[in-house]
């Protein structure tokens, strides 16, 4: 459970930070965020059933061990599970960043009118 919550917060804050610095339109940012979520989900689905043993924490290495060979259906389910966890929080992060940037623009205009 804590890992899932960490993933959701990470995708939310990452997209929020990137969006606040970007000048792209919202649909373009949503497509980028969804493609990044899909890439992470694909990597997660591909590496399902494998892990490394006897790996040095600093220099890596070790032996790749295949615990079991997942079926295509298992990999597809894993892909959609990870994607559906990451995607809503990423899109929500874009929405919140756009909302905050809109308020920042309003405040800047108000400050300019005062001077």
What report would you give on this structure?
There is one protein chain. The chain is mainly α and 115 residues long. The chain has one domain (2-114). It has helices at 2-21, 26-46, 72-114, and strands at 50-53, 63-66. The protein has a two-stranded antiparallel ribbon. Helix 1 packs across helix 3.
Uncertain spans, ≥5 residues at pLDDT below 50? none
Number of helices: 3
Percent in helix: over 70%
Number of domains: 1
SS-derived structural category: mainly alpha
Mean pLDDT: 79
Return Rg in Å. 20 Å
Spell the H/E element sequence.
Answer: HHEEH
Strand order of the largest sheet: 1-2
How much of the polypeptide forms β-strand, as a percent range?
A: 5-15%
User: How far is it from the N-terminal to the C-terminal residue, by CA?
Assistant: 51 Å
Largest sheet: 2 strands, antiparallel
Overall geometric form: elongated
Query: What is the total tally of β strands?
Result: 2
Short overview:
The chain is mostly helical and 115 residues long. It has one domain (2-114). The chain contains three helices and two strands.
Q: What would the keywords be for this entry?
A:
single chain, 115 residues, mainly alpha, two-stranded antiparallel sheet, 7% strand
Blueprint of the fold:
Blueprint: H1 2-21, H2 26-46, E1 50-53, E2 63-66, H3 72-114
Antiparallel strand pairs: 1-2
Helix pairs in contact: 1-3, 2-3
């Amino acid at each position: 459970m804590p890992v899932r919550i960490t993933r959701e917060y990470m995708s939310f804050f990452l997209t929020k930070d990137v969006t606040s610095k970007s000048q792209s339109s919202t649909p373009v940012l949503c497509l980028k965020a969804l493609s990044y979520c899909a890439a992470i989900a694909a990597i997660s689905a591909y590496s399902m059933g494998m892990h490394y043993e006897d790996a040095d924490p600093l220099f890596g290495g070790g032996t790749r061990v295949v615990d079991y060979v997942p079926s295509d259906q298992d990999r597809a389910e894993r892909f959609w599970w990870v994607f559906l966890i990451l995607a809503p929080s990423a899109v929500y992060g874009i929405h919140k960043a756009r909302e905050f940037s809109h308020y920042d623009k309003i405040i800047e205009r108000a400050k300019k009118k005062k001077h």
